[in-house]
Amino acid sequence: MVFNVILFAAFFLASNFVADATIGINWGRHTAQRLVPATVVDLLLQNKVPEARIYTSQEDILKAFVGSRINLTLTIFNIQNIAGINLARKWVQEKAPYFESANIRRVYLGSHVFRVGLTDKPFLHMAIDTLETLQYAINEAGYGDQIKVTFPHTESVLNDNLTRPSDAEFNEAIKEEMARTLRILKQNNAPFVVEVFPIADVAYHNYDPEFAFIDNKSPFVIRDINNTIYTNVFEFIHDCFVWALIKAGVPGMEIIIGQVGWPTDGFPGANASTAERFFKGLLPYVASNKGTPMRPGAPIHSYVHALTDENKMPYYYPFARHWGIYRSNGEPKYKIDLTGQGRDIYPTKAKGIMHMPERWCVFNEDTTDTQKVKKKFDEACTRADCTSLAMGGSCSQLTFAQNMSYAFNMYFQANFQDEEACNFEGLGKVVTADPSVGGCVFPVEVVRGEQEGDVAAEGSRLYQMPSCGIFVVLVSMLWALFYD
């Protein structure tokens, strides 16, 4: 009986969501060769993307969005820099010229502060205080109806060992802090933001991989109360949070999917083909306003993650460098219709991108000094992106010499083809014949002139993330297996 009342309330509240769902996109810049802001804005406009999230609030990025009419979400990672009402007011004063001209709509604080807060309560309390004071400062300046401050969340804030959405509630360890956060969000009509990564979520739960796709082709489903059936992990995760919000006393709070993506490398099943299939199912589903079993007919505003690959993200999760729809040279990897109409089209290619010459750095196959060979391999992969060599990656089947060449070339390209970057104490050589093997692409990157701005001010997007050392150890183990 209680469950029936809750379900009725949920369905009633869902009917109050009337606006059509929007499809936005996230743009991060942790990459050696990145697109300039003006090019990114042009790409979004050409692909008719109405909303975007940037992982910064830097002025040079905001300027590029002025007049574009693209609704913008900002991110502040160094929360301590705006802690306290005086610092919050200062931030508002500095950014206010862009609030309307750059269509700023939301501000996200931190990188999963509740996940960090499970073991660092002082940090979590400071973050919640900052959420409240920054929203107050924005309200005080007259922009409270336009700009909402919130936190992004992952499934880590829920109780463990979930088998169905109706079992979900917020983790006992952070319930008090979550209750306070929800009160602040409700008072300001701000959304609850959830990040969903289906390829990782099904692996974490040990579900059938097909459950990651909207067009699930397997018989695997999850059954919940009142004969509710879940055929994909997107709806499953969404409704886990619906249930958690109901139990927390805010059944009508809006949920936005702040990140949802599919990597194209660095993980089993991560490739352009599966990414294309994933989005071909997801985006028309979002655009249809079909809703979920717990919120039928309710729009789910969703942000595609991400616009481009980021080859400076941590090694610990190899696939974290490969979320992009576009390569760093502005070329799309696969077909995707960002309007949600499901058309079989490639997104618009970035204009005005200049490539470096078609030159590659390869291993000269001199194995006389095996210790030197291993040392140079490790150095290359520590300083450049070797995540495609990870198990399940597009280059995981290379021979020993090909592995060496791939590592050398990635370092060479990251250093803009400086010939000194292909020395490796005499082990490298520059060639003009493409050494790519099957689906393993040895890239040629864009010219240095495509660099613009400084990402240092983006702050600690990688807060509490492990260093690259773990992945280097794994790659070194692979190196040992390849070496005969």
From TrEMBL:
UniProt entry keywords in alphabetical sequence: Disulfide bond, Glycosidase, Hydrolase, Signal
GO process annotations (BP): carbohydrate metabolic process
Signal peptide span: 1-21
SUPFAM superfamilies reported in the protein's UniProt record: (Trans)glycosidases (SSF51445)
Record-annotated X8 domain positions: 359-442
One Pfam entry name: X8
InterPro entries: GH, Glyco_hydro_17, Glyco_hydro_17_plant, X8
GO MF term list: glucan endo-1,3-beta-D-glucosidase activity
Keyword Disulfide bond among record annotations: yes
Superkingdom of this protein's organism: Eukaryota
E.C. number: 3.2.1.39
Family per similarity comment: Belongs to the glycosyl hydrolase 17 family.
Protein name as annotated: Glucan endo-1,3-beta-D-glucosidase
Species in which this protein is naturally found: Handroanthus impetiginosus
